[in-house]
Design a protein that fits this description.
Acetyl/propionyl-CoA carboxylase, epsilon subunit; 2 helices; mainly alpha; ACC_epsilon
Length: 72
């Protein structure tokens, strides 16, 4: 059989059992965590159908004030 190396090794200091348990929990959680998924790349803004779902903008005098009013 091959000799197994310890997962953690204390190099300096004298940690308590609680401190070693906390360190072990943090290392185990970090190794089990998944890497964040990369967002799907947008293929084209022209083919995005979400732009058809909002009302068109009508710039003009006092348009900023009307933009905050409820639309009928």
């Amino acid at each position: 059989m091959s000799e197994q190396r310890p997962l953690l090794r204390v190099v300096r200091g004298n940690p308590s059992d609680a401190e070693l348990a906390a360190l072990t929990a943090v290392v185990a959680a970090a190794s089990a965590a998944k890497a964040p998924e990369q967002p799907k790349a947008r293929t084209s803004w022209w083919g995005d159908h979400a732009t058809a779902l909002h009302k068109p903008l009508h710039p003009g005098e006092d348009a900023w004030r009307a933009s905050g009013l409820p639309q009928a």
